[in-house]
Each structure stands twice: as structure tokens, then as C-alpha cells.
From TrEMBL:
Boundaries of every Aldehyde dehydrogenase domain copy: 31-487
Organism of this sequence: Tardibacter chloracetimidivorans
One Pfam family from the record: Aldedh
Any GO molecular function: oxidoreductase activity, acting on the aldehyde or oxo group of donors, NAD or NADP as acceptor
Name of the protein: Aldehyde dehydrogenase
Amino acid sequence: MATGLHDGDQGFRLANPERLFIGGEWKNPVEGQGLDVISPVDGKVGARVAAGGPRDVEAAVRAARNAFDNGPWPRMPIAERAAIVRRIGALLHERLAETAWATTLEMGAPLPMARAVAERAAALFDDYAAIGESYPVEDLRRRTNGEYAIVVSEPAGVVAAIVPWNGPSLLAALKVAPALVAGCTVILKPAPETPLDSYILAECIEAAGVPAGVFNLVTADRETSDHLIRHRDVDKISFTGSTAVGKHILRTAADRVARVSLELGGKSAAIVLDDADPELAVSRLAGEATMNTGQVCAALMRVIVPRAQVKMYSEMLAEAVSGMRVGNPFDEGTQIGPLAMERQLERVQGYIRKGREEGAKLVCGGARPADLNSGFYIQPTVFADVSQSMTIAREEIFGPVTSVIAHDGLDDAVRIANDSDYGLHGGVFTSDVDAAYAIARRMRTGNVGHNIRAIDWHMPFGGFKQSGLGREGGVEGFRNFLEVKTVYVSTPPSKFANS
């Protein structure tokens, strides 16, 4: 029994961190390798887990393929699968404190935030059980010639679920829960930096009685992950992460026309109109800049304001974020934890330098907090006088760096917002809901909020352009894991006698 602790008084427990979960069993990796989990809290090793290699991926895919082709899971009535998936959710609820603790240790989210994310992840298993129970998997339709067709939704097959490091428990649940309810079998591959919460999920799935091979966990480096996405027996790849990796997956999957859904990067814009409430807008946008230390793909980090109000908004934002407490995410009162990795800290620092070199005005932040000498911490940063041609306005920084950009009227604001390779989220800050809706319809992005960045996982979430393909959340997220078949019959089968 391995334990991950902070200050020796709380933590989480993993029964088999040195093993992989393949074919219903905890197995030693073939190569006997391990992954060190570096905690961003202090830059030290916080835990160690197994590291799979190509032969472990082969074993996991083989187990998932056999479970799909020959096992009971895809052929179970959906209500039976839903009941087991609900048990997974209940077991995750029992381990919320452990999941939160593991998440904070591995990626630095403040503990209250990590618990809220863990709660939402557990709830998704209930949500998708309910969606599956009510979904019309068999739809009898009358044809124009008087005969019939049955449009059937069937499981997509073997799924490679690949999740990133910035919200691992939630992003895993968004893939695993609907895939299992749909009748798919799954190989979960977490980011090598944040595998701990996936071990807790695997233990809950095992305890819930999911048949062998239906769910498999392989922790591995990125090179081994490539073997997974290239495997001919993987029918569907569901990936959340960077746009660059998403493009690589798309090219790789094209060789065998594998099904792919991608939730990728963002550079989301908040359009602020003259009639917006500045205090409301700043309070919401300050949260965007600092939530999860800016490591949120949908965060509104381009703040597009009337030219006459640039100084006011940049100074108000700077005052709001500068007053937030940066520190150890396990400590009560911490609002902003560290960035998840040392390379991410270096990346963010590089963008801050680039912003200054290209002529943006640094209003606040831009450096490591003076009292935090270890760990991967950065001050929340606000730039003013940012033009849309600057690097910090065009590329995803994935850190607490906000760019305030001037607009010269509504059409100009919409033009600036749409001048991006990305289209994941957006916001319109105005007192007029009709104006907000009209502007939202003009924005080339998958989600838009009125006076807020809203994400409701009962609703579809995803992006336009290079922000991805497909949607996660809600019914649309369930459809991600289904194939549609049309069966033509002259008369309805007996099971449709009362239809």
C-alpha cells in the first residue's frame, strides 16, 4: 500500500501504484519501468507509479479488443451497464478527499478547487448513466415505400482515452463515463505528470464489478502513447490536449480512418461593451486569469474593451489579481497555486518576456513571487496596449497572463475576437441580453457566455477551427462513442409491435 502525503497528516492511498490495470488484473509493466510524479508545490518527487511500454499497450489493447468482441459488456442491456456505472460514481464519491489530495499534489490546484473538480467528475458517472437509460438506441422509422428502417446506435468499439494534466480527474470522467455506458471498452492513458487520480478511478472501476478488459489503465510516457494511437485495433481516439498533438493524432488516425474526437487549445476572447458593469466584468475576468493558475483551455484571456476604457480595465484587473494570494495549494486561503510543471513555468515566463519585447505594457505581475523560492509559482500578470498581432494575443499561453486589447466599436470587437486560429469559448459583457445573444451568434467559437464564461457539463462543449472536433458533455458527449447503423426491414420486428 503506497501513500502520498503532504505534511504527513493527510493524503491518498493507492493499492498498486507500481502496476498497470490490464484485463481486469493489476500487472507489473513488462519493462519494469516507473514514472516519478514531480509535485509543483515544491519541485520534489511526490509519488512514483508504473510506466508502461509498447508491450504493455499491446496487452491493454488486446484485452480491450477481446472484451469488446467476445465479452458481455457491449451486449448487455444499457440499463445493466448504467447500473454498474452508477456504482463507479458512488465509489468515487467515497474517495473525493483522496482524489482531491492527489490532484493537488500532482498538478498544484488549490485543494478546494481540486475537491470541486473531483465532485463533478464523480457526478458525471451518474449523469451519463441517466443519459444512456433514456437514449433512443433503436429508432423505428417508416420509409416512403411503406416499409421500415431501424436506425440503431451501437458502441464505437475500443476507445483510447487520452487526457491532459490540467484537470485530469474531470477530463478522464468526460471520456470514460460515456464510453462505458455506450458499451465501449477503454484504455485510459493519463498524462505522465498526473497519473495519480487515474489510479483511484481504476480501483473504483474494479470494485464496481466491471468485466475484465472493459477498462484498462496504462501510465506511460509520450513515446509509448504514440504506439496506442497508431494501433490498428483501436477504433476510436478521444483526446484532450494541445492543438499540436491533436493534429498529430488526426494525421495518424487518418491512415486507418479511426474515429477521432479532439478537445484542443483556445485563445478565448471577452468582448466588453460600453454599457458593461466594470466591477462585475473585472470580478469575473480576474477569476478567468487566475483559475487553476490560468491553465484552463477555455479561459477568457483576451479582454477586448472600448479604446477609451483600456486604462480603466487594465488597472482594475491588475488591482484585482494582485490582491489574490499565491502560495502552497494545500494551505487554507491560497487562491492561486503553482503552474503544473517546471517546463510550463519556463513557457509562461517566455511569453511574458515576449510580450514586453513586442511592446505590450506590463501592468502587474510577470515574475516569481519573492517569498516562494521552490515550486513552480508565477505572479498573475496583466498586459495593456496589446495589439492582435502580438504573440501573447495569438498563442495559447496556458498561464495567468491576461491581454487587454482595445476595440473601436462592435464590428471591430467581433473582428478581433474572430481573428484567431482558435474558437473554443467567448464572452460578451453587456447589460443587454439581446445584444449579447446577437454578438454571440457572430463569434466563431463553440461556446459563448453572457457576462461570464459558463461551462455546464450537461451541455455540449467543444470548439470551432483549431480548437477541436466533436463535443464533450451532455447527450452530444454520449454520441461521441456511438456508431449509427441502419437496418432495413419489410415489416417491424416483433419487439416493435407496440410502436
